[in-house]
User: Fold these one by one.
Assistant:
Number 1:
Amino acid sequence: MLEDGLHAVPAGHTASVVTHLEMLEEAPQRPDAELALTLRRVERPDPDWYLNLFRKVGAPWLWFGRLVLGREELVAILQDDKVHVHVVADATGAEVGLLELDFRQEAACELAYFGLAPGAVGGGAGRWMMNRAIRLAWGQGISRFHVHTCTLDHPAALDFYCRSGFVPYAREIEIAPDPRLSGLIDMDAAPHVPLIRD
Ligand SMILES: CC(C)(COP(=O)(O)OP(=O)(O)OC[C@H]1O[C@@H](n2cnc3c(N)ncnc32)[C@H](O)[C@@H]1OP(=O)(O)O)[C@@H](O)C(=O)NCCC(=O)NCCS
């Protein structure tokens, strides 16, 4: 168990507080705007297409979870019938959102990745996508829907999940190599998180 107080983070690493949340029965839908968006499941997605979307949505928030996997490990996840990758496209066909539901655990669903590309944030698309995520997850007969978010994510994300019906139940600290310094993400990403080099 970690002692109270401040803990040094090695240079070249990021640190974040992770909050785990769960929903134990299907939350009611919240009002969403009528938006010219489409949501489409992509079965067995091409890894390069997937990584491109993952970076588009996640790089501004230093998402590294899928970027650190070896190719075989990533392909195994993407080809698993229990991992449902959905893409949100706008009226021009531009791909602006990623919704990834992971049903690999019996009777549960993890909202593994949920986010919008920077230009699509804050215009109602998040709520539109969450209403659909809740329906899709609970439509598979689960008894638990869970997610985690961290302090490197969009600052509105935690509150957004709480309003969506997820209840926080645990908190962790995560220290990880800064994905910009390991070459996984462009150096100019996430300027709100200053680089601290070795
Ligand atoms: C988290 C995230 C998906 C939230 O999406 P968002 O686009 O910021 O949120 P929205 O604008 O859809 O919703 C915010 C609220 O404003 C309302 N709203 C915003 N624009 C609206 C509009 N034009 N018309 C009607 N309502 C609108 C929504 O209905 C919603 O209300 P509610 O939460 O009270 O139900 C988004 O910030 C994001 O992708 N962030 C980057 C990635 C990330 O951090 N992901 C989460 C971490 S895992």
Number 2:
Amino acid sequence: MDEHLGACERCGATLSPGLVLCGACATPRDTVPMWAGPLMMGRPQVDPNPVPPPVYSRWEAGPTTFGPRTKFAITVVVVFLVLSIGGIFLLGGPMVFVWPPVMIVGAWRFLRDVWRSDRVK
Ligand SMILES: [Zn+2]
């Protein structure tokens, strides 16, 4: 059974398969053949909210990183701790060659992680 065959609803003319309009009175058919579907859809679908490309930043705050103010605050605190606590060892004692370097290296690695460039968007 060919669903494209039928009579025009308006004038009763026999409709040929594949015609969108009646050949006699140009009344649109009630059923649009499959091949005409793409022609009837209008503009192509465009995503209204495209996913933005990832943005990496060393300064902006992101979901997993702090903003520049917080990073500066962390840096100040860490440097202060290294200078103050490490300074105590520098006053003397056998550990002066152990803990100050360890603290400096630890602080360096910690701050490097704090200030790493990370995805913010
Ligand atoms: Zn007709």
